[in-house]
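question for whoever is on the cluster today: can someone run the full assembly for these? two chains, 326 residues total. i dont have access anymore since they changed the login thing
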Amino acid sequence: MKKILLVLLLTSGIYAANHIVDQKGKTFIPHTLKVSVGDTITFKNSDPFAHNAYTDNEANEFDIGMQSPGQNIKIKVKAQSSFNVECAIHPNMLLEVTVE
Amino acid sequence: MRNFLSIILLATLLFSSDAQFEMGKKIYKTSCVSCHGAKGSSDTDTSLIVEPRVLSKTILTQEQSYQVIKKGAHYWGASTDIMPAFESVYSQKELYSVAYYISKAFNEKIKQKISKLYFQSENIFKDKQDEILKRGEKVYKKNCSLCHGIEANGDGKANNNPAISIYPYALNKTLLDEKQIFLYAKYGGKYWGSDRDAMPSWSKKYDDFTLKSVAKYINDSFIKKR
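^ ran it for u. tokens below:
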């Protein structure tokens, strides 16, 4: 039983998906996303100025900090709790993440 | 006799206003129109390069405009010195006449507009002063400081990321009063004539109470103390 659990634990990362979200024209592209627990989201910055993506959702809380143009930053989805991502610099940016 | 003197005084005042307007108009055509346009709408060839303020939308009052024309925008917190100081070029009377002309020609009702927009907005209750400042500080540090800097020096982390990507004001030097700061944050730079549109409108993110709290925090922490 323990071996089965160990194998499942080790292989769970293989099935986790990486989702790419771009930030361009002060917009998240795409602006909606469906993910699973364990998946990762890579935030790209294709704008010529900085962004600062974050969420206040307690279960999946993150703040990637100041993200330079051209920089990619990855976060992991930790819990089964859908959340919104915003940018601390550009208030009209919104990404709706549904955790399935 | 009194009526005669009143008429003379009134005529003098009117003549002075007309003379002031004409003086300002002449100087505006010489020194300002190439960037700001004949109608203050900044629809000029140079606007593609220097991105001048649309004067017909500016939040600045006549007196504030005079100060910017006199000392230049950088003196009052702008991160660049594209809007130069004219105090060494024109006399005080001439500078004042330009501000007068701009006010009368393009933006005469700005004070009424500021009052109307401000008093239409949600009130801050006087008995929640501590809460107001705490809330303002929290939002300022979370959002505004990223561009404007923790000490409102215009040196936020986003400012040099990369360099010259945004142009945040050093709020500790601003001419704006607390009401104007609130309205600027609420409606954003483009509404108030900034072509760059770098300063966003925060009205969708925060309610009037919060934005007034931020304006109060900025005013009390950085402007009053200078």
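summary bc i know u wont read the tokens: Chain A has a mean pLDDT of 91. The helical segments of chain A are 2-15.
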